[in-house]
Write a structure and sequence with these properties.
Blueprint lengths: L6 H5 L9 H13 L2 E5 L6 H12 L5 E6 L3 H25 L7 H7 L14 H14 L4 E6 L20 E6 L9 E4 L5 H15 L1 H10 L3
Parallel strand pairs: 1-4, 1-5, 2-3, 3-4
Helix pairs in contact: 2-3, 4-6, 7-8
This protein binds adenosine-5'-diphosphate (ADP) and magnesium ion.
Magnesium ion binds next to α3.
């Protein structure tokens, strides 16, 4: 089991996942020799869910998986601070599973005075914590995956400044902005095929009644 962010457990409780087998396979194959993939498409089409399901389908390929909400600079910064705590909490396990290491995050955080006396990450040192996370990921030979979710506003958020440089890096972006494909390679997310869309409609209708299913059917552009 890789080191996973806790939020994902919750995201997956959102009902059964339908379709998207080809997209999952495409992401998996593309990550063999590509480092950055941008899933782009309309709001609500299923980009974030696809990223979550990719993680659950292929988590065994990674020692550690990180998730950052990238809609604003503040949210991405807060996510990186949470990633620092995640690294402290599960680094002992990542290290046990791996032989290639260039130094631990825990010792780096102590050296840079980024932890309090309980050993927790200081939340008022955001810029220095973000730099520490980026530099650890850049120097790491671990198989890690970083998801930058909802990176919709590429004009205001300099996403590249959050990219670690490691040779082994795998970065999965979700964005409404088609320009995101220029950050790596792009996967345009289309509406679900009809059979999967119908299954999703039935699931949501069963859960929440008629009104909601009518709204969803217009959203799915039937
Ligand atoms: N293939 C799918 N099967 C089941 N539910 C889905 C699927 N794709 C999306 N959803 C659900 O639809 C909603 C919107 O999807 P989301 O991934 O948040 O869209 P986006 O990130 O493109 O804005 C979420 O509740 C998600 O769980
Ligand atoms: Mg999304």
């Amino acid at each position: 089991m890789p080191c996973l962010p806790p939020k994902l457990r919750y995201e997956r409780d959102n009902g059964t996942f339908f379709g998207r087998e080809r997209e999952l396979e495409w992401i998996h194959k593309s990550f063999v020799d590509r480092h950055i993939i941008a899933i782009y498409g309309l709001g609500g089409i299923g980009k974030t869910r696809l990223a979550v399901e990719y993680i659950y389908a292929y988590e065994r390929d990674y020692n550690a998986i990180f998730w950052a909400t990238a809609d604003t600079k503040d949210s991405i910064t807060l996510s990186f601070v949470a990633m620092a705590q995640q690294l402290l909490d599960c680094e002992p396990r990542i290290l046990a599973e791996s032989t290639l290491n260039l130094g631990t995050f825990t010792s780096m955080a102590r050296r840079r005075n980024l932890t309090d006396h309980h050993g927790s990450i200081l939340t008022n040192e955001t810029d220095r914590v973000v730099s520490a996370v980026i530099s650890w990921l850049s120097d790491s030979a671990e198989n890690w995956l970083l998801v930058l979710d909802n990176a919709d506003d590429l004009d205001s958020v300099d996403l590249r400044s959050f990219f670690p440089t490691a040779a082994s890096r795998r970065i999965l972006i979700t964005s409404r902005d088609p320009k995101s494909r220029h950050l790596g390679i792009g996967l345009e997310t289309q509406a679900l095929p009809e059979d999967a869309a119908v299954q999703l409609l039935l699931q949501n209708a069963g859960k929440e009644g008629e009104g909601k299913s009518i709204r969803i059917s217009s959203w799915m552009s039937f």
